[in-house]
Every structure is written in C-alpha cells, then in structure tokens.
C-alpha cells in the first residue's frame, strides 16, 4: 500500500484538534453575513451579486485556512521531531509524503463540501452547476495544499512558506488576466515588453491556471463554458504529481 492509514488519520485528527474546519466554517458564515449586508446596497441583480461575492469569499477563506494549517503542521512536526520518528520506522519517506498529502486532500474535500452546503443554505442555490463548481474548487484547493506541502518541506520557516504559497495562488489566479493584458498590447509601451510576454507565457506552463477553475459566473448563468472535465482532471493529475515529486526530492535531500 503506497500510503499509511494511521498517518492519514493522524493528519485528520490534527486538523480537528486545531479546529481548522470549525474556524473555516465560522469565517464562511461571517462571509455569508457580509455578502447579505453588502447586497442591500446593490440596486440591480442583488441575488447574482450575493452568490458571486459569497462564492469568492468562501473559496479564499478555504485556501488561506489550508495554507496556514499545512505550513504550521509541517513546522510543528519538525520542531517536535515527529518526522524523525516516522522516518525511522519502516514507513519511509515516500509513504510519509503520500500519506500526508492524502490527508490534506481529504481535508480539502471536506472543506469544499462545507462551501457547497453554505451556498445551498444561505442562498438556496440548488443548480447542478454547483457540483461542477465544487469539483473545480476542490482541484484548486487541493493543488494549493500540495504546493504548500512542497514549500513546507523545502523551507524551514512556516511564515515564509505561507507567504510564498499565497503569492503562488495569487499568481495562478491572475494568470489569465495578465496574459489577456499582454495579448491586447497593453504592455507594449513598457521596456522589455517582449521579455515580459515570454516570461509570462513560460510561467503559464509551469503554474496551474486557477482562473479557469471555480468561476463565479458559472453560478450566476448556470452554464459552464471553456472548461472540460478532461482539462480539469489533467491539470490536477499533472501538477499534483509535479509538486509531490519536488517535495519527495527535497525530502530525500534533507537530513533527519
């Protein structure tokens, strides 16, 4: 078996011990209240605005919560020598990494389920598109979690790991807007415009396109365009394997 069930259970227990899901649920409810209050100031399309703002807010809460938890979970495991003990057993480095990543992915799935339940409960949103939106949100959160695990394995500072992961998430989320601006010629007047264009095209290859995932317009128009299940699953498979391979390489180099 490539993973360890006790270690996966340990990760889940750590999440419940730190009240991760409870804290994210409370912040999601706060975001729901804020969306309802802000909607009162909107003149037109109040329901659509409330759904879009709530969907964006709870997705951001989930990503930040996962990144902070993973960064400090790994740091605590280093400080208390838990990794030393686990790697001294027949578990091995690769099974440890796969088991921890699986635990984080399960937490991401539970978080997305909570997100969908809040959308259904607050705005009585029951469209089948919600399932597709939730699936793509799970891919987004799980990929961010896997990248956070890679950074937490590579870096010794939980704070730096959190900041770098959030910067990575922001860049992945804004990649479509940046490429669109460059293709429209909005940066042609800048120095080294061609270099910027080539650099952004290179980053678009090695960074997942989160701007294509969990789009709020899907919930508003109840229609999914431009994204297929094959594209979503392909992106999730490729980048999950890439981030885990990088984490395994760093974990192999580290001395415990």
Description:
- This protein has 256 residues and is mainly α.
- It contains ten helices and no strands.
- It has helices at residues 5-17, 20-39, 46-79, 82-88, 93-123, 129-154, 158-183, 193-206, 216-221, 229-253.
- α2 packs parallel to α5.
- The longest helix has 34 residues, at 46-79.
- The protein is globular and about 60 Å long.
Task: Describe the structure using short key phrases.
mainly alpha, 256 residues, 0% strand, 10 helices
Task: Spell out the blueprint of helices and strands.
Elements (H helix, E strand, L loop, with lengths): L4 H13 L2 H20 L6 H34 L2 H7 L4 H31 L5 H26 L3 H26 L9 H14 L9 H6 L7 H25 L3
Helix pairs in contact: 1-5, 2-3, 2-5, 3-5, 3-6, 3-7, 5-6, 5-10, 6-7, 6-10, 7-8
Provide the helix percentage.
Answer: over 70%
What series of H and E elements makes up the topology? Answer: HHHHHHHHHH
What is the residue-averaged pLDDT? 84
Number of E strands: 0
Describe the sheet with the most strands.
Answer: none
Distance between the termini: 24 Å
* Computed structural class: mainly alpha
The global form is globular
Question: Counting H and I runs of at least 4 residues, what is the number of helices?
Answer: 10
Residue fraction in strands:
under 5%
Poorly predicted runs are none
Rg measurement, Å: 20 Å
Q: Assembly state here?
A: single chain
């Amino acid at each position: 078996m490539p993973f360890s069930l006790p270690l996966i259970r340990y990760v889940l227990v750590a999440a419940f011990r730190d009240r991760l899901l409870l804290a994210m649920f409370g912040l999601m409810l706060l975001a729901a209240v804020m969306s309802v209050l802000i909607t009162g100031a909107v003149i037109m399309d109040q329901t659509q605005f409330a759904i879009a703002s709530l969907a964006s807010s709870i997705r951001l809460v989930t990503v930040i919560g996962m990144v902070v938890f993973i960064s400090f979970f790994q740091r605590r495991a280093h400080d208390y020598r838990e990794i030393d003990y686990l790697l001294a057993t027949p578990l091995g480095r690769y099974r440890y990494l796969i088991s921890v990543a699986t635990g984080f992915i399960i937490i991401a799935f539970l978080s997305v389920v909570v997100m969908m339940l809040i959308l259904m409960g607050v705005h009585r949103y029951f469209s089948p598109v919600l399932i597709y939106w939730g699936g793509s949100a799970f891919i987004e959160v799980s990929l961010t979690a896997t990248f956070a695990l890679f950074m937490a394995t590579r870096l010794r500072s939980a704070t730096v790991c959190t900041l770098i992961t959030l910067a990575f998430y922001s860049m992945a989320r804004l990649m479509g807007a940046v490429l669109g601006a460059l293709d429209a010629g909005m940066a042609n007047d800048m120095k080294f415009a061609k270099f910027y264009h080539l650099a952004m095209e290179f980053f678009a290859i090695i960074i997942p396109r989160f701007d294509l995932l969990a789009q709020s317009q899907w919930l508003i128009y109840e229609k999914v365009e431009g994204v297929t299940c094959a594209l979503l699953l392909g992106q999730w498979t490729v980048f999950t394997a890439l981030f885990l391979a990088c984490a395994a390489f760093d974990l192999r180099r580290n001395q415990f």
